[in-house]
C-alpha cells in the first residue's frame, strides 16, 4: 500500500508583533491577510522614530505585505532593511524567502527558509516553508 504525499503549495508569511500600538495594528493586518493595510501602515511606520526593534518588525511586516501582493523587489528590499537592523530576524528571513518563492527563485527561497530556521526555534511557518520547498508529490 502506498500513500500519496500532499504538498503545501503556498508559502507561509510570518507577522512580527511588538508592544508598539502601530506595529501591533500592522501585525493584526498581517494575521487577517489585509495586505494593502499592512503595506499602508508599514510605509508610514518605517521612516518614523521607532526603536530598532520596532522598525525591524515594521520592515518585516512590510516585506510580508509586499510579498503577498506580488511586489517582489519591494518585499526583498523591505526584508533587507529589517535584516540590516537585526541580521538574525527570522521573520524577515522567512518573508524574504516567500518573496523569492513568489519570484520563482526556489534556491534563494530555500536558503532564506534554512537561515530563518537556524535563527528561530522551530517556528511553524518556517518549518512549513521548508517542507513545501523540499516536498516531492507522489506521482
Q: What does this protein structure show overall?
A:
Helices cover 65% and strands 0% of the residues. The protein has helices spanning 21-31, 35-45, 52-68, 72-85, 90-102, 106-119, 124-134.
Helix content range: 55-70%
Principal-axes shape call: globular
Tally of individual helices: 7
Distance from first to last alpha carbon:
14 Å
Q: How would you classify the helix and strand content by structural class?
A: mainly alpha
Question: What would a concise description of this structure say?
Answer:
By secondary structure, the chain is mainly alpha-helical. It has seven helices and no strands.
Topology:
Elements: H1 21-31, H2 35-45, H3 52-68, H4 72-85, H5 90-102, H6 106-119, H7 124-134
Task: Give keywords.
mainly alpha; 139 residues; globular
Amino acid at each position: 500500500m502506498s500513500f500519496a504525499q500532499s504538498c503545501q503549495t503556498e508559502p507561509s508569511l510570518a507577522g512580527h508583533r511588538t508592544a508598539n500600538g502601530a506595529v501591533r495594528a500592522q501585525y493584526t493586518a498581517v494575521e487577517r491577510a489585509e495586505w494593502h493595510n499592512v503595506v499602508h501602515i508599514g510605509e508610514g511606520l518605517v521612516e518614523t522614530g521607532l526603536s530598532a526593534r520596532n522598525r525591524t518588525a515594521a520592515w518585516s511586516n512590510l516585506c510580508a505585505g509586499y510579498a503577498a501582493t506580488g511586489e517582489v523587489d519591494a518585499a526583498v528590499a523591505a526584508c533587507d532593511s529589517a535584516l540590516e537592523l537585526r541580521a538574525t530576524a527570522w521573520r524577515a528571513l522567512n518573508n524574504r524567502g516567500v518573496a523569492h518563492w513568489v519570484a520563482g527563485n526556489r534556491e534563494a527561497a530555500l536558503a532564506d527558509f534554512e537561515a530563518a530556521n537556524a535563527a528561530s526555534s522551530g517556528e511553524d511557518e518556517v518549518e512549513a516553508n521548508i517542507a513545501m520547498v523540499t516536498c516531492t508529490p507522489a506521482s
